[in-house]
Amino acid sequence: MTIPEILREKVLSALEALEVALPDPDRIQVTKAADLRFGDFQSNVAMMMAKPLGKNPREFATELSEKISDEDLCEVSIAGPGFLNFTLTPAAWANLARAQWESADLAVTQVDAAQTIVVDFSAPNVAKPMHIGHIRSTIIGECLSRVATKVGHKVIKDNHIGDWGTQFGMVTWAWKKGVDEARLETEPLQELLRLYRLASDASKEDEAIKEECRAELVKLQQGDAENKAIWERCLALSRKGLDKIYDRLDVSFDHWMGESAYNDALAPLVEKLLENGQARESDGAVCIFSSESGKPKADPFKINRDGEWQDFPMMIRKSDGAFNYATTDIATVEHRVNDWQADHIWYVVDFRQGGHFSQLFEASKRLGFDQVNLVHVAFGTILGKDGKPLKTREGDLPQLEDVLNDAVKAARMIVDEKSRLDTVEEKAELAELIGVNSVKFTELSHHRMSDYVFDLDKMVALEGDTAPYLLYSYVRSRSIFRKLDEKVTLNGGNLQLTGKAEIHLVRMLSRYSDQVHQVLDDYRPNLLATYLLELARAFHSFFEACPVLKSEGQTRESRLILCDLTSRVLKDGLNLLAIPVPERM
Ligand code: ARG
Question: pLDDT at residue 423 above 90?
Fold first, then answer.
């Protein structure tokens, strides 16, 4: 049981002892104190219940507090109109810290009912290199997957890459005009990008070329051997390039079920929907229309044009017979539910695809997939310093690899200036770790829906709410153990807390489990990122206020345990953010 749960039980028994009729027990809550000056936890139960009982709230609170006070656990005081404030005793805090320190899981609780969760993230359109826009989905998706796994869910990470779209018509067209085989060996993604740009620029200028590109795509889709071979090579090359970036980011997948994996399922799917009346023909295309059952405002198949509600169907087969993104996504839901027994599917995708997902979710429900919980985990845009979406000087989206390299360069300057590492190799390795992970931490420390300004110098700085600050905190919490001249065996039973800074550090440590769980309430890694920063600050205050190596006996042992516990929580929490820690900096 957590401390608020234990306190809540005590409130309930006090109410029973006072023989008052209990309200709905769910309404009796003990929460974290809003203001730590008055206590660690609080409850408004006295204020809530006094009136119906015809009592004065402060007097009722006093009656309750007399029944609750427990010299081993907490002191109870009354504040304001009748708040109950609980201040845990140092011994109670020490017990908590001991339990957490002795727990291999750092006292992170497991969910009661484990669910199967498919996380659909990253999913770039291949044959093009990943650009800055892909960082958000990739990083948020990896973090949510790790957190869900940590609390006991079964997680399936699926990279639903766009490996079957119009871009292949273009790449194939340009490939046939002349591919640079040598460069394909050395810089595959850059060569594919060159081909793509060549075709895309040419077809913008010339309608005939656009047609030729489209014809190449149709040939591919009809199984033409030459085009298929080119496509397969593009995929293999892209896969190589992507793997390199994922390695660098510490991101991995259980499956790469891209769009093309569903090709054979699309025609029968559309036939089935036509047969059972879920879809119908419209101007030669096949579409899913509104069920006309709800309010148009909440209906993803309606759109308001000039003050009038009109049909806004989801097209699943174009008039030329081709299938599209929506068709594939329906087939994907079918597969994930039927073959993977998904209870939840989380789509970590740009907010601009919100309309598509509302239609997909509604359509899936109507097709009978109403047990699965489908969630669009949306995110906003990364901005440049001018407040507009981040672009290169040429006006393109910056490539992810370039962004990471720039971050490593910026980190290298800081490392050269401040690091105590000896060799050039160690420094280069540290700069890579700091650079890449600063980009990741910046992403995770912002609310996913907010647009944020991409500022490399700020991200890699040692001061501020940054990755380097956290990594440094971890290193500091470990370095003390290297300075010990003797090998110590620590015993949790000897934990004893004296100072305020120690207690505050333990208070922060004890919140870890809750913070991890809260990430999943609204898919918000930034809650965990912010928590780790707060924990690091509590650790530095403790470290400044409480000498460790210079203290003696039980005090020294207790403080060493707090350093050890802090380092473990920091490392574990950072690992949930997919950020590895260095041992030295
Ligand atoms: N490939 C898509 C894009 O780059 C993202 C795919 C997201 N996942 C999905 N099941 N639709 O926009």
Answer: yes
- For residue 349, give the nearest of 372, 375, 376, 374 by alpha carbon: 376
Instruction: Write down the pLDDT at residue 133.
Output: 82
Q: Which residues contact 210 (CB under 8 A, 6 or more apart)?
A: 203, 204
Q: Supply φ then ψ for residue 439, to 5 degrees.
A: -60, -45
Nearest-CA residue for ligand 1 atom 6 is 123
Ligand 1 atom nearest the C-alpha of 120 is: 8
DSSP letter at 275 equals H
Residues carrying CATH 3.30.1360.70, the chain: 3-88
Distance 139 CA to ligand 1 centre (A): 15
Burial of 452 (0-12, 13-18, 19+ CB in 10 A): middle
Atom of ligand 1 nearest to the CA of 161: 1
Specify the length of the chain in residues: 585
- Ligand 1 atom having least distance to the Cα of 350: 12
Give residue-wise pLDDT tens across range 81-107.
999 999 999 999 999 999 999 999 999
Q: 451 alpha carbon to ligand 1 midpoint, in Å?
A: 20
Ligand 1 centroid to Cα of residue 32, in Å, is 40
Q: Using the mean position of ligand 1's atoms as its centre, give its distance from the Cα of residue 26 in Å.
A: 41
CA distance to 186, 305, 540, 548, 565, per residue, from 484 (Å) = 50, 73, 19, 10, 17
Q: Which atom of ligand 1 is nearest to the CA of 356?
A: 11
CATH class of 3-88: alpha beta
Backbone dihedral region of 54: left (phi > 0), alpha (psi from -120 to 50 degrees) or beta?
left
> pLDDT band for position 444 (50/70/90)?
very high
**How far, in Å, is the centroid of ligand 1 from the Cα of 269?**
20
Mean pLDDT (whole number) for 319-330: 92
Give every CB contact of residue 297 below 8 A, 6+ residues apart in sequence: none
Provide CATH 1.10.730.10 ranges for the chain: 441-576
Atom of ligand 1 nearest to the CA of 329: 10
Q: Give the three-class secondary structure for 15.
A: helix
Ligand 1 neighbours, Cβ below 6 Å, are 120, 123-125, 160, 162, 329, 332, 347, 349
CATH superfamily of 441-576: Isoleucyl-tRNA Synthetase; Domain 1 (1.10.730.10)
Ligand 1 atom 11: residue of nearest CA: 329
Cβ-contact 154, 111 below 8 angstroms? no
pLDDT of the residue at 294: 87
Q: What is the rounded average pLDDT for all residues in the chain?
A: 93
Report the predicted TM-score, pTM, of the whole model to 2 decimal places.
Answer: 0.94
